[in-house]
């Protein structure tokens, strides 16, 4: 046993606390060689293997009763190639460390999600995305991948090397192997101007296509039980840098979006009847503001209030109809929803199991405060989303199975064929993968 292995059985929990697992052992390899040895040993012992990041998925994608691989020691930048404009980074590196390191080098990713706590491998494997008219998910920015496969060998893939693996592995759900390094495309750091302002639900939905077309990055949040939304437009800017003021930024991002929101959610959980009144106050509390900064300081924000989430990707042309159906369903139901509904977009991409694979997409995400019963709300939302051909986010709560997903993804069989070749004995399998990919 290496010094990085632990046989003490400890319960693993995800960030939201809705998924737990009790692995036989946990390993924290300090090198690719140590990881490969741990994979081979698990296979000899008849144990399945799952890598785990920071647990920001709401599904059991990383849960295992076998060997849990923690990537805490597989971190840092391996190489920055300024000719190819790429960065190669170890799989366990948190996005926040990558973003800060790139900024110091005068570089940036083109687009990203709205939180940056996840590891690069965890974020890309589940299809984490932000919003963008022209720029896609984090996985779509991958130029090469390195992974340890079921036989303990190291496989590298890109458009030139093992291209059939690369076509599916950028969003691999942990089903093809354990990712050890990722090469991302980067560009010289740039400035974004964010414009946040309130708008009514009717105004946003009637102007949705126009707002998406006019802005590089557009998103909005609708507050259930109200006709109010808050919108955010991020566009490239010549500068100068003008970050939010220290006090006003703290009031918006910490006090209102985290501190007071936490209290409001707690009150709403204890007294659901108060939620519509709280929503009306909350939806008017955030004022219009404009600020300019480097990308990760504009795209991302702190999320300290814990929640569970469901998100579906729809064909973009179906988004407004589905949103209006969602609002009508909430208005007509006894449900009391304390969290805003988030709406974002993405262009079509060419990754087999990307939620935007082959189609321009709009994302509709619903959340509930952690500990609030979510089944009735999520079931009603899922019924609306699946009626529009929705594809569930791989890392967020959903009930879809392989039969549904094989219909939703034209290239589903391409993914499962590569999986059959790389992991015929399902060393990297678990119950979640059996449900969404089949046996």
**What is the CA-atom radius of gyration, in angstroms?**
21 Å
Instruction: Specify the number of helices.
Output: 14
Query: Share of helix among residues?
Result: 25-40%
Sequence of strands across the biggest β-sheet: 17-14-16-15-19-20-18-21
Largest sheet data:
8 strands, antiparallel
Average pLDDT number: 93
Distance between the termini: 32 Å
Record keyword descriptors for this entry.
single chain, 439 residues, alpha+beta, eight-stranded antiparallel beta sheet, five-stranded antiparallel beta sheet, 21 strands, globular
Can you summarize this structure?
The protein has 439 residues and is an alpha+beta fold. Helices cover 32% and strands 24% of the residues. It is built from 14 helices and 21 strands.
Characterise the protein shown here.
This protein has an eight-stranded antiparallel sheet with strand order 17-14-16-15-19-20-18-21, sandwiched between helices. Strands 7-8-12-10-11 form a five-stranded antiparallel sheet. It has a four-stranded mixed sheet with strand order 1-4-6-5, covered by helices on one side. The mean pLDDT is 93. The protein is α+β, with helices and mostly antiparallel strands and 439 residues long. Helix content is 32%, strand content 24%. Strand 15 and strand 16 (228-237) form a beta hairpin.
């Amino acid at each position: 046993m290496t010094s990085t292995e632990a046989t003490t059985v400890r319960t693993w929990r995800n960030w939201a606390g809705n998924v737990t697992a009790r692995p036989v052992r946990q390993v924290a390899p300090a090198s690719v060689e140590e990881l490969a040895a741990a994979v081979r040993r698990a296979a000899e012992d008849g144990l399945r293997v799952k890598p785990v990041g920071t647990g920001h998925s709401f599904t059991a994608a990383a849960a295992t009763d076998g060997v849990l691989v923690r990537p805490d020691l597989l971190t840092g930048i391996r190489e920055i190639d300024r000719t190819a404009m790429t960065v190669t980074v170890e799989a366990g590196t948190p996005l926040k460390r990558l973003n800060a390191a790139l900024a110091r080098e005068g570089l940036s990713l083109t687009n990203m999600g709205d939180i940056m706590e996840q590891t690069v491998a965890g974020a890309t494997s589940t299809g984490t995305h932000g919003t963008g008219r022209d720029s896609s998910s984090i996985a779509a920015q991958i130029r090469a991948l390195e992974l340890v496969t079921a036989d303990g060998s190291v496989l590298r893939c890109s458009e030139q090397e093992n291209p059939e693996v690369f076509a599916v592995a950028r969003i691999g759900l942990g089903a093809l192997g354990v990712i050890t390094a990722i090469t991302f495309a980067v560009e010289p750091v740039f400035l974004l101007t964010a414009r946040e302002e309130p708008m009514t639900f009717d105004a946003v939905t009637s102007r949705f296509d126009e707002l998406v077309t006019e802005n590089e990055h557009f998103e909005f949040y609708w507050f259930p039980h109200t006709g109010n939304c808050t919108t955010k437009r991020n566009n490239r800017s010549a500068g100068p840098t003008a970050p939010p003021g220290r006090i006003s930024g703290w009031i918006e991002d910490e006090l209102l979006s985290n501190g007071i929101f936490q209290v409001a959610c707690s009150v709403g959980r204890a007294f659901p009847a108060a939620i519509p009144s709280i929503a009306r106050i909350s939806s008017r509390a955030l004022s219009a503001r404009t600020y300019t900064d480097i990308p990760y300081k504009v795209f991302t924000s702190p999320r300290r209030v814990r929640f569970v989430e469901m998100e579906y990707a729809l064909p973009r042309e179906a988004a407004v109809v589905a949103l209006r159906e969602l609002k009508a369903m909430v208005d007509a139901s006894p449900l009391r929803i304390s969290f805003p509904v988030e709406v974002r977009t993405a262009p079509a991409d060419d990754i087999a199991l990307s939620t935007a694979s082959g189609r321009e997409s709009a994302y509709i995400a619903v959340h509930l405060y952690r500990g609030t019963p979510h089944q009735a709300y999520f079931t009603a939302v899922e019924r609306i989303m699946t009626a529009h051909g929705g594809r569930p986010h791989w890392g967020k709560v959903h009930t879809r199975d392989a039969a549904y997903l094989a219909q939703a993804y034209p290239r589903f069989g391409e993914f499962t064929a590569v999986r059959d070749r790389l992991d015929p004995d399902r060393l990297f399998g678990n119950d979640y993968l059996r449900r969404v990919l089949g046996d």
